[in-house]
Automatic annotation (TrEMBL):
The keyword Nucleus applies. GO terms for biological process: regulation of transcription by RNA polymerase II. Component of the Mediator complex. GO terms for cellular component: mediator complex. It is found in: Nucleus. Keywords: Activator, Nucleus, Transcription, Transcription regulation. Belongs to the Mediator complex subunit 10 family. Component of the Mediator complex, a coactivator involved in the regulated transcription of nearly all RNA polymerase II-dependent genes. Mediator functions as a bridge to convey information from gene-specific regulatory proteins to the basal RNA polymerase II transcription machinery. Mediator is recruited to promoters by direct interactions with regulatory proteins and serves as a scaffold for the assembly of a functional preinitiation complex with RNA polymerase II and the general transcription factors. GO terms for molecular function: transcription coregulator activity. Its main location: nucleus. This is Mediator of RNA polymerase II transcription subunit 10. The keyword Transcription regulation applies.
Length: 135
């Protein structure tokens, strides 16, 4: 899948460069530059045709909509993956903290329950197969 993406990237880069050159020619247009402008416009049309041919090779590529938000904000879309990983790590730490808190709560609850309801807790542990002696 890398080759089709690289081909598309190459075609897009050439297209962008051609449009940049057209912009320069048009910004400072001189009548003697008409032939060069016509050639650049033909190159642009050819480039669009080449890009259109490549679309079938990359139609299975799915881009998250958030990547387009990054581009619209003028941010580097390659930072999207980095930000996603950072968000996942932060969320992972939060979830791990919650799991640890629930484990401590469970242990504390079992200690308290064993002092108030020792017989019931012994039955509970027997049903669960928990071999720890009640405290």
């Amino acid at each position: 899948m890398t080759a089709p993406l690289e081909n598309l990237e190459t075609q897009l880069e050439m297209f962008i460069e051609n449009v940049r050159q057209i912009r320069i020619i048009v910004a400072d247009f001189q009548p003697q530059g008409q032939n060069v402008l016509n050639q650049k416009i033909q190159t642009m049309v050819f480039g669009l045709q080449e890009i259109d041919k490549l679309k079938s090779q990359v139609q299975d590529v799915h881009v998250p909509l958030e990547v387009f938000d990054y581009i619209d904000q003028g941010r580097n879309p390659q930072l999207y993956t980095k930000d996603c990983i950072e968000k996942a790590l932060t969320k992972n730490e939060q979830v791990k903290g919650k799991i640890d808190a629930y484990r401590k709560f469970k242990a504390h609850l079992l200690v308290e329950l064993s002092s108030v309801f020792p017989n019931e807790l012994a039955k509970y542990r027997a049903i669960r197969g928990d071999e720890r002696p009640s405290s």
